[in-house]
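Late entry, fe (ii) ion complex.
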Amino acid sequence: MNSFDCEKSFLVDFNLETGFSEKAETTKRRLSQMSEMYCDSEAVKKLLETGDPIVYAFHEMGFPERKGDLAFGTTILYPGTVGDEYYMTKGHFHNQLDTAEVYYTLSGEGYMVMENPEGDTIEMPLKKGEAVYVPKRYAHRTVNTGKRPLVLFFTFAADAGHDYGAIETKGFRKIIVERDGKPVIIDNPKWK
Ligand SMILES: [Fe+2]
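Prediction complete; structure with ligand written out below:
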């Protein structure tokens, strides 16, 4: 837990290229922690034989999950593919399904992949200098389709909570793969 008092105003700096802030708590996600999420199990196995790459990291303010406050931070998603599937975050619903989130792209490019429990899907491009609104009730995942790190600033209701389980079990309906050097959105063959 950091020393900020979110009853008061304060300033935090984030690096635009790396997303890093000395004042935020850093969490790293490696391929082995999300190996089941990629379609190509053989490609996962092969990559893990030679190491365990960091797929993404996030830097966030460790605020209490309290109604009325805003949680915020940055995500840095590295470039790469597993088979032909681009590096991505695990993705989650909010425990409080009726809470939205805003992501602003600081550098890099990619997609925000979203879906609601009814099966409606949205894929929004992420471009430097643009903000994307993730509506309430939509699970969300970021995908890096570029050649450099994708860095995003995010903010959401501090008491929203994260539900990773549903996505870990079912996956997203849509995935993004590289075809002839370009990103293509396809149905997820592993979706249950
Ligand atoms: Fe979220």
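The first strand starts at residue 25 and ends at 30. Will revisit in the morning.
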